[in-house]
Design goal:
Order of helices and strands: EHEHHHEE
CATH topology: GTP Cyclohydrolase I, domain 2
Helix content: 25-40%
Largest sheet: 4 strands, antiparallel
Structural class: alpha+beta
CATH superfamily: GTP cyclohydrolase I, C-terminal domain/NADPH-dependent 7-cyano-7-deazaguanine reductase, N-terminal domain
Oligomer: single chain
């Protein structure tokens, strides 16, 4: 059986996030990595956009969620993104990574990874 995925790598989004007041003073840049299984692989033979998940629409949806919500922790943001994408795009499996780059000294990035569904 063939599984077909789309992915977005190191998408930059801006949001207000953090526990500390200094973190919440200004918007921060987060990096988003996403893998989504296609609900069907018809696009491999049809070549039609309606038979796949449109990367641009997914990216815009993530950007909108980040811009229109504030959170203290990354976990609720990740949960909202993954639940929204699952509902809207019917992906049977997703893996979402959200990174806060250079937020701690001597650390390139830190963050969370959420995985949901069954990878076919």
């Amino acid at each position: 059986m063939t599984t077909s995925l789309i992915f977005i790598e190191e998408m930059k989004v801006e949001t207000i996030i953090g526990v500390s007041d200094w973190e919440r003073a200004l918007p921060q840049i987060l990096l988003i990595d996403l893998e989504m299984a296609l609900p069907q692989i018809t696009s491999a033979t049809s070549g039609l956009i309606q038979d796949t998940i449109d990367y641009a629409i997914v990216a815009e949806r993530i950007k909108s969620i980040a811009a229109n919500h504030t959170f203290k922790l990354l976990e609720p943001l990740a949960h909202l993104i993954i639940e929204t994408l699952e509902k809207e795009f019917k992906s049977p499996w997703m893996r979402l990574k959200i990174s806060k780059p250079q937020i701690l000294p001597q650390v390139k990035a830190l963050g969370v990874i959420f995985e949901k569904g069954k990878r076919i």
